[in-house]
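Hey everyone, long-time lurker, first post.

I ran two proteins through the pipeline my lab uses and got sequence/structure pairs for each. Pasting them in order. The first:
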Amino acid sequence: MTTFVHFEITAADVEAIAGFYAEALGLVATPSPFLPGYTLLGNAAGPLGAVMDRKFQSQSTIVWFGVEDIEASLAAIVAAGGRQAGDINAIPGQGRLAYASDPNGTIFGLKQAENR
């Protein structure tokens, strides 16, 4: 089953934009221990999304979906007319991640949890 898991907002000044969301919405901004230029936004329940440097992706907002099998999901995306948009990467303790795009070119993310 596919679920919504995360959002990313891209910015030229990650610190300033993460600070804006922290101040305006009462979120906690925490720089990622894994990736410079990537700041997690969250609340007491945990991370909700992130602000990341535009050098990673130029699209202003990216939605992430949780999937059970990232390879099968990417194959289904390609079969439906989309494309894989980069390599599959792993984040320790989190899982495997990849970007894809729909036929319109809109980038979105896929996350396969580590404990599948």
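...and the second, right after it:
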Amino acid sequence: MKYTSTIDINLPIDKTVALWENENNFKEWQDGFKSIELISGIRNSKGAKSKIIYQDKRRIELLETIISCQLPKEKIALYEHRHMTNTQTTRFKVINPNKTQYISEVEYTKFNGILIKLMAKLFPGKFKEQSQKWMNQFKEFAELTDI
């Protein structure tokens, strides 16, 4: 399953990217975000691995591996969870000096377990909905934040 989500942010590209990649801001736009811990490598460098924890109704632990990080052009990361594996490519493009397009391409490459496979088959739009929700929340946070 593969999809792309986009949103326009009313900020210059440098401010948008700075807010997006600052881990202290994740809690502001990613529901349930608790922590990110660098396990190996250099943060945001090829091969770096981090453990990301979300806690809402249940605890979710992801392993992030950076494939490439050349922001604002793109950041490609592999996310592994016991129920699924996906790659996310994030890009930022200048629309004008005060407006940036935020693009997220997500490709799920593996689903483990009958329930998650069924969800992906019957409700693929739910995955894109979640990505778009976080992008909308990022836009709202970013446009209200002055750095």
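Reply from user beta_strand_b:
Welcome! Quick read of the second one: The domain at 2-31+72-144 is CATH 3.30.530.20 (Alpha-D-Glucose-1,6-Bisphosphate; Chain A, domain 4). The chain is about 30% helix and 45% strand.
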